[in-house]
Design brief:
It contains twelve helices and eight strands. It is an alpha+beta fold and 396 residues long. Bound molecules: flavin-adenine dinucleotide. The site of flavin-adenine dinucleotide has 18 residues, from strand 1, strand 3 and helix 12.
Length: 396
């Protein structure tokens, strides 16, 4: 396992650090947090993204012909680490940069690439993910939203849920069922949808932190031109998996979610002499976070060798959720009464932490992947995989 940057990675890191030393202040206002005014956060994120795009840092993994740098996942990890080091945790536009963009690059036609990629890179288009439904989350392929062809348009009806930032997004990437006579993974298609299209109603959902981060999205006879279908009709499932892989890679970047030094500083600020219980929890957290760094190094080493780190990514996603929750707990305990009244800065984290166990694939789903790919246990069978969707019994 390689613990250090290669000479090329070290040079790239120095370049990134120098850019951020000079420009990080321009990002002010773009981090989300407690009581954040999302309107202002989105505006600040768009400004910051434009600066990044103009300076060649907008989307380093996109190919150069689309305004990126054509770099690999290792450089992305280094860039993320340097962003975290500069205190930049903004993810408002990640739906476009890390998910929609790479999917359009992989499956879009020339017209779609020239229409969407540049404005996405420059932060002019903000995207939301319209995948999950009330009865389709882990079993996403069981989704019920329908798209029916009408001339050169599609008419979409259904409901999506947990759609992060759908209340601010300009466009959404959506999967819908276009052929219910096929098995559930075969009859899906992928669409790019203008969120201002008549028939789309976005209803914000308030989460337990009191904030509005995600939404329900109702689609009532929403007309989408066929020109906005991504890939072939019926190809929605493999395209969605491409989007989800990119999502997991962006969540898996531990360094942007958690900093042990920040927790330690918070503890020192609030409790000069922590009791044994808190010291014990902090030591546990340190051990976890050090293990995560080593796991990160292992993933980087695999990536560097051109190997697939899917199983490690699942372990990392599990570990990040655990560590983030433990860190929030330590910070809450350190704050004491202020944590309960919400005056401190830990409460928002504490409420946000459980969501990490769910979003981007739940803990249990990650464990299934680990069971199959690391422990070699038999694959979980889907008894309905080959049954036409329209013949599935309700709830299967
Ligand atoms: C913060 C956050 C942001 C999100 N943002 C978006 C977004 O922008 N767009 C979007 O489309 N979705 C989004 N989601 C939704 C997310 O993808 C789903 O919540 C997730 O896939 C789980 O689906 P579900 O909620 O329907 O739970 P279910 O799939 O119904 O799961 C319920 C429980 O059953 C368990 N379970 C299910 N299947 C299995 C299995 N095969 N083996 C073992 N256990 C199983 C699960 O682990 C879970 O504990 C977001 C969720 C969160 C928390």
């Amino acid at each position: 396992m390689d613990f250090n940057d290669s000479p090329l990675e070290a040079a790239f890191r120095a370049d990134a650090r120098a850019f951020l030393a000079e420009n990080a202040a321009a990002q002010e206002g773009a981090n989300t947090g407690p009581d954040a005014d999302h309107e202002a956060v989105v505006a600040a994120s768009r400004r910051w993204q434009r600066l990044l795009a103009d300076s060649g840092w907008g989307a380093i993994m996109w190919a150069e012909q689309y305004g990126g740098r054509g770099l690999g996942p290792i450089e992305q990890v280094v860039w993320n680490e340097e962003l975290a080091r500069a205190g930049i945790t903004e993810t408002t536009l990640m739906g476009g940069i890390a998910m929609a963009g790479p999917t359009i690059i992989a499956y879009g036609n020339d017209e779609q690439k020239s229409r969407f990629l540049e404005p996405t890179l420059r932060g002019e288009l903000m995207w939301c993910q319209l995948f999950s439904e009330p009865s389709a989350g882990s079993d996403l392929a069981g989704l019920r939203t329908r798209a029916e062809r009408d001339g050169d348009q599609w008419v979409i009806n259904g409901q999506k849920v947990w759609s992060t930032f759908a209340d601010h997004a300009d466009w959404g990437f959506l999967i819908a069922r276009t052929d219910p006579s096929l098995p559930k993974r075969k009859g899906l298609s992928y669409f790019l949808v203008d969120m201002k299209t008549p028939g789309i109603e976005v209803r914000p959902l308030r989460d337990m932190s009191g904030g509005v981060h995600f939404n329900e999205v109702f689609l009532d006879d929403v007309r989408v031109p066929d020109a906005n279908r991504l890939g072939e009709q019926g190809q929605g499932w493999p395209i969605a998996r491409t989007t989800l892989l990119h999502e997991r890679m962006s969540i898996g970047s531990a360094s942007r979610m958690f900093s042990f030094d920040e927790v330690l500083a918070h503890l020192r600020e609030n409790i000069p002499a922590p009791d044994q219980l808190l010291r014990d929890r902090l030591a546990g957290l340190y051990a976890w976070s050090r293990s995560l760094e080593l796991l990160n190094a292992r993933v980087n080493t695999k990536l560097g060798r051109g190997e697939d780190p899917t199983a490690e990514a699942s372990v990392m996603k599990l570990a990040i959720a655990e560590i983030f929750e433990c860190a929030a707990d330590v910070m809450m305990r350190a704050e004491g009464r202020a944590a309960l009244t919400g005056e401190g800065k830990a409460q928002h984290r504490f409420y946000f932490a459980p969501g990490l166990r769910i979003g981007g694939g739940t803990d249990e789903v990650q464990r299934n992947i680990i069971a199959e790919q690391v422990l070699g246990l038999p694959r979980e069978e889907d008894p309905w995989a080959d049954t036409p969707f329209e013949d599935l019994p309700a709830g299967s």
